Structure formats: structure tokens, C-alpha cells
Amino acid sequence: MKHRPTPVPNSSVSVENTPVPGTQPLPLSRVAIEQALAERGLPKFHGRQIFRWVQQRGVTDFAKMTDLARELREQLAREFTIPTPAVRLKQVSADGTTKFLLELEDGRQIEAVYIPDTPAQTFCISTQVGCAMACAFCLTGKMGLVRHLRADEIAGQVRVLAHETGLAGTAFNIVLMGMGEPLHNYDATMAALAVMADDQGLAVHPKRVTLSTVGVVPGLEKLANEPLMPNLAISLHATTDAQRSALVPINKRYDLAELIAVCKRFPIRQRSRITFEYVLLNRVNDTPEDARRLVKLLDGIKAKVNLLPLNEAPGIAFTRPSDDRVNAFAKILADRGLRVTVRASRGRDIRAACGQLIVEKTPGVISETIGRK
């Protein structure tokens, strides 16, 4: 059964999301809002009120913030806008997964996904328009990198999805596994996570956030010292440098030995593990020899392995392995003591599964070299 996209009419997009001449974006964090008000001679506590309206209630029209004085609301409307990604399209999969096409203020578009019952409710969020990593099996990499998302655009996706799905005020998980490489947009990603964790807002504890990276080693080294530490997932996908460099080009800069070394040094919370994601490609990286090398590679790391049989899509040269090959690979890992799960693909019928997010008509691709910092 095919599910048609649900267009969102322009009339449903609040006019307050359109920039007003002479205004500036409202600061993102609660502390920054309080500081902006203090600079204008206004009480800081109004910053907490505004932050709660935006984050907890999803209100971006100052006129509707009814516990603020009318004069203050009018002043805020003259001076600030609240940037918010606009929902342009929603597609619902047969399995309940919902993909959102979101438009940013400059007209660029990104995708984000709501995955219900996983077993928690989960939002898959983007950190860039496109991606520079160019992984051979990922549609997003076909876009190239258009631009980094700002922190408010990353956090804004969560706010929009929470209110679109009715989950604001309830517990949900976040995976930074949408479009882009989070550690390539490090500062904006970390700033967004701090805002999402604020208990005056959506209060998403870092334990409920998983950051997925292909292995930007300098970013991993910085992440190891963060006070707000998300769960870590490494997109590995291969067990030799030759194989990984062909599939994940950044391996030519940060090879397996360097990546595994930083993983062994990475601080892991008690009862936590680093997740290693491994996309299984038919007769490419799914042999018994690959499985045995993977066990050896992860020796000494508190690890669990997520096996992801390829989500096939036009433009991707690889094919999905049979269930027998997937199960044989998983059995070798499990028999040798590794924790392993085979991830069920969600939203494949609407191209919302892992590696399938792409906005095909986003202009302005840029080329950027990922170097050491």
C-alpha cells in the first residue's frame, strides 16, 4: 500500500516565521535571552517565560505570550523574530514512521523523521543541508554539502516535531542520524543539545540523545570532554582500511587504527557502550571473514553492534543481502561475545530509512575539505 505525501498548505505556516525588516533572531538559549533582556533594562525572569513559551508550548508569536505585559510583547515583536523550520510536506509510512520536509528561512530544505515505538518515541534530526562525507551507500552524500545548520535550526527541528506529534512534555529520544555529519558541524550541534537539555524547555537529557558520526577524530576528541555527553554511535561499515576508504572516504584521513584508538580512550558512562553501526552490503562487507575481523577490531571496547541491512534506493550501486547472510553475520558476532542487534528498517516505503534522506532540488552545493583541527 502506497502512502501519498501530505502537503502542508502555506496558510498553515505561521506568519511570525517570516523575518520582519529591522528585527533580529531571538537568542536561542534561555541564558542568552535573559542577557538580551537585561541589556534592554528588562527583568531577566521574562527570559525564562519566553523560553518556556517557545520550547514547551511551541509558541513563536509574541502576542500570544499572555503572561507578559502587552507593552513588552509589542517591544519584543518590533525587535525579534523566532526562527522556526516550516513544515512543507509530511509523508506517513505504512509502519507509522513520518517524514517531514522542513524549509528554513533561506529557502533551503532538510528532512527529519519521527519513528514511533522504537520502543520509545524517536526523532531523527539533521545537522546539515546535505553532507560532505560522501559515503558510497548513502543518498544524502549524493547532495554534497550545501551548508551547515545553525544551532537554532537543529534545535528547531526537535521543537517542531515535538509539537507536530503531540509529544512536547513527554519523554522521547533523539538520534542525530539525519542529513549531515554532526561532528563536522560541531559547535552548532553542541549548542543545540544544550538548549534541548534545559529543564525550562523540552528537558531532553543527553542520555536520550545518540550522536552518530562516521569518525571525525578531532570532533570525537572534543566530544570526550563535553559536560553534556550524548550516547555515541560510530558508523563503521568495514573492517579493513581499503574497504572502508572505498565506502567511507573520510577513512583516508582518519584510518581505522586512529578511529579505534580514540574509541578506546572515549569515556563511557557506567552500563553504557559505544554503538558501532555497520551497513551490510551484499557480497561486499557481509562475509564470515568480515564478521571475524569485526570481532577482533572491537576487542577491548565496551561495544554493541547495530547491523543495518542496506536500504536500497535509486542511485545506490549496492544491494541488500539476504536474511540468511545477515543472520549468519550476526551469529558470528554473538557467538564471540559481542552484543549485536539487527535493526529493522522503518519508513522504507517513503524513503525515510537510514541512508535514504535526500532533498533533490536544493541548489548551491559547496565543496569542503575535512581537515584536522
Keywords:
single chain; 373 residues; eleven-stranded mixed beta sheet; two-stranded parallel sheet; 11 helices; disordered C terminus
Folded structure, characterized:
The strands form three sheets. Strands 1-4-5-6-7-10-11-12-13-14-15 form an eleven-stranded mixed beta sheet, covered by helices on one side. Strands 2-3 form a two-stranded parallel ribbon. Helix 5 (151-164) packs across helix 6. The N and C termini lie far apart (49 Å). With 373 residues, it is of the alpha/beta class. It is built from eleven helices and 15 strands. The model is unreliable at 6-19 and 363-373 (pLDDT under 50).
Helix content: 25-40%
Order of helices and strands: EEHHHEEEEEEHEHEHEHEHHEHEHE
Strand order of the largest sheet: 1-4-5-6-7-10-11-12-13-14-15
How big is the Rg? 21 Å
The biggest beta sheet is recorded as: 11 strands, mixed
Percent strand equals 15-25%
Mean pLDDT across all amino acids:
89
Helical element count?
A: 11
What is this entry, summarized?
With 373 residues, the protein is an alpha/beta fold. It has helices at residues 30-39, 45-57, 70-79, 139-142, 151-164, 186-197, 217-223, 241-247, 256-265, 288-297, 323-335; strands spanning 6-7, 24-25, 80-81, 86-92, 98-103, 109-115, 122-124, 128-130, 145-148, 173-176, 209-213, 231-235, 274-280, 303-309, 339-342. The protein contains eleven helices and 15 strands.
